Amino acid sequence: ARVVLATRNQGKIRELRRILAEADEKIELVGLEEFPEIGEVAETGLTFAENALLKAHAVASASGLPAVADDSGLCVDALNGMPGVFSARWSGSHGDDAANLRLLLAQVSDVPDGRRAAHFACAAAAALPSGAERVVEGVLPGAVIHSSRGTNGFGYDPIFVPDGETRTTAELSAAEKDAISHRGRAFRALVPVLHELLGA
Ligand code: ITT
Question: Which of 35, 46, 74, 85 to probe ligand 1 with, by most ligand atoms within 8 A of CB?
Fold first, then answer.
């Protein structure tokens, strides 16, 4: 089945192509570059699920094809769950991973070890041009550290250590991250749900 991947985030695109190819070789992902007329979708939702559904619906109705979307972020307990849905625009400039990470590090610099719990969250949404929809979520619990380590992944990966790990998600291999990540969990759960939606 041809399904549009409704994201412009290159880090997500790399991971989602891997995760979905591994989970189901029959899903043929079409990139948004095939639909240059589709513009930015305003992420006005207050939750990951709302924003993922907004993006999936906008792209499904504009493309006429089924679409899947990812809304995700880092929720830091000591910051009352922030940056959360604002993760991509935390520093004010959308998608500036380096600036977002720098600001977050400064904001948690006084938080003692033991109070640095955080989690990555991902909502995976699927929508059809008819308006039918499904959404599932995945999380990865862990903690934020004091300075960056590692060069794999994207976004806040260099400052996040999953529970039970000593390495940051930027120090894990691609396969190691996919096996435990919020995105891996959400999109592996989405696959059977997407098939059910496409068959309905
Ligand atoms: P699209 O809306 O086009 O998908 P976006 O970058 O705007 O792209 P989001 O609003 O979902 O997407 O923001 C997600 C942000 O959360 C992303 O920019 C990262 O900073 C952070 N993030 C999400 N998953 C991550 C991961 O696996 N590792 C590190 N940071 C992650």
Answer: 74
